[in-house]
Amino acid sequence: MRKNHLIISIIALLLCSSLFFAGCSKSDSVGREEQKAKEIVVAIYRDGAIDKLDAASYDGPHFLYKMIYEGLVEDGGEGKILPQLATSWEISPDGKTYTFKLRQGVKFSDGTDFNANAVIFNLKRWVNNDRHAILTSVNVESMEAVDDYTVKIVFKNGAYPILTELTYPRPVRFLSPASITNSAGKDGEKFTKPVGTGPWMVESYTKEHEFTLVPNPYYWGEKPKVNKITFKVIPDAQARALALQSGEIDILGGDLIGKIPMENLLELKKSGKFGIYTKRTMCSYFIAFNQNVDAFKDKNVRQAMNYAINKTSIATNLFDNIGAGANGLYQSGVPYTTAENNFGFANDKEKAKQLLEAAGYRDTDGDGIREKGGKKLEFNFVLSTGEFPEWKQMAEFIQSEFSAVGIKVNLNVLDKNGYEDATMNTKAFDIALMRTSSDSWVPHGSLLELFSILVTSKAAKAWYDKELYSNIITTLNTLNEKERQENYDKVFKFISEEALTIPIYYPITSFAVNTNKIQGFEIGVNSYAPIEWQKINVK
């Protein structure tokens, strides 16, 4: 009898155990499903270059630096500078000495501490380096960790943009010193992996295919609401749009993530199936001249090419009134620009022809192309469509406009690497479609980027003029606001009057979102922080 009771007890225990583990299995399954439901998928036009995402470098997408790394201060939009890893700061009257009080209790995503020593370690990796010469903040006299949470930096010049530059996505961000190892290489160090104090950290990376970010468990600020963001690499713009329509991705768009072609944006908007979000930017599209080309040394030719293009028609006829035709190189609203100092040339093809005639260019053989001294006005027009798919359509329109006044341009569409090499290193173009920097980079950072000699090419990206460059530097080191405006007037007027570029178009940024799944979507404060990632949630 006692034996029967024992058998019954064992059976009862086994039944309870099976029910318990079944409950656990069901609970685990529900947990996994909930975690998967909290994942979002974003299309990106290029590889994330996670293995090269060193905070002190320029490799990989800008916006990833903002997600993984943080700086001392952050761009709050509309000229506001917000505290980030620094809670407060003091600036000396001469604008040279900055003393930062650091946020305490912050850890990198590897669990190591963020402190003054980590700041100094990172600063030493990029200050006084010619590679970063377009930054006024690169010129440092001295720096020291006053105590564990105080850093003092003495800059060589009291340049007014220093604090703004410290908000940039790169190279003024901080990575864990533990992610740099000693190496026998050129700089005696080797980057191993991206480890920052930001809200996100890398979970996985498959080169040229996809990469995933997950919340940093040590993050000190607002925690992300989703468990994972997967970025799928889809280089073709049309394929990205199809991926959204098929449900393969949840978010499409963003200037530095994967732009939506104009025709697809209109189609997605018309369908009514997706949330469409747009926002004005501070970016401009323009044509840069290679100033080594003889024809462009004549101001008449540069002005003629400005007059030849109907910029208004690009916005109204090509892009269904999305964005606007450009006037000056910079958009109105960019600090220190005015209608008097920042202007362009209205479409006037007859005026363009007259200027070309005055420069000695005539069509003597009736082939529709002007020439002078046996050399035709025929140019290699370089562009890339991976990052900006609308550039192809725009370039074809520009090609037609130039043809109407006797100038032939041959379109040369390059991939991103080829385009960057041609425009930044080899100068292998006659004219090139480019964009200005945006947001907190304009105008000071953009002016240095376009009109100063770059280390990579030993030439300016857009145009170099000794007096112009000198005026830019003087302006950046002017602390008096009234004098600074006067100096900027000289700079902008020179660029406009001399037709050093051809302003083309003022774009917008746009996103299409699967709002059946995604909630809380907001466009970010700038193109380098394109989305308010922490606010996104899944319904």
Automatic annotation (TrEMBL):
Residues 1-22 form the signal peptide. InterPro entries: CntA-like, Peptide/Ni-bd, SBP_5, SBP_5_dom. One of its GO terms (cellular component) is periplasmic space. SUPFAM superfamilies: Periplasmic binding protein-like II. Keywords: Signal, Transport. CDD domains: PBP2_NikA (cd08489). It comes from the Bacteria. Gene3D superfamilies: Dipeptide-binding Protein, Domain 3 (3.10.105.10), Periplasmic binding protein-like II (3.40.190.10). Residues 81-451 form the Solute-binding protein family domain. One of its GO terms (molecular function) is nickel cation binding. GO terms for biological process: nickel cation transport; peptide transport. It is found in: Cell envelope. Belongs to the bacterial solute-binding protein 5 family. This is Nickel-binding periplasmic protein.
